[in-house]
Specification:
Elements: H1 9-18, E1 22-27, E2 30-34, E3 42-45, H2 52-61, H3 66-71
Antiparallel strand pairs: 1-2, 2-3
Length: 72
């Protein structure tokens, strides 16, 4: 298993955009992202650093692996 590189919410949103996710709206400090063909809507908090559990869950819901996410 690859080591997860922690990042901020804005960095995570940028990485998901590179993977084809689209920011559709922002409510408060959370950016909502969708991708055609996926059942999930990613809700990414814009914190200075996302926790490892939350980040792993978002990566899993996005259909990515930790290795692919780190490479973005």
């Amino acid at each position: 298993m690859a080591k997860l590189k922690l990042c901020s919410g804005s960095d995570a949103a940028r990485k998901f955009q590179k993977a084809g996710w689209i920011a559709v709206r922002q409510k408060g400090s959370h950016v909502m992202m969708t991708k055609p063909g996926y059942q999930w809507t990613l809700s990414i908090p814009q914190h200075d650093e996302l926790g490892p559990g939350l980040l792993r869950k978002l990566i899993s819901q996005a259909g990515l692996t930790v290795e692919k996410f780190n490479a973005l």
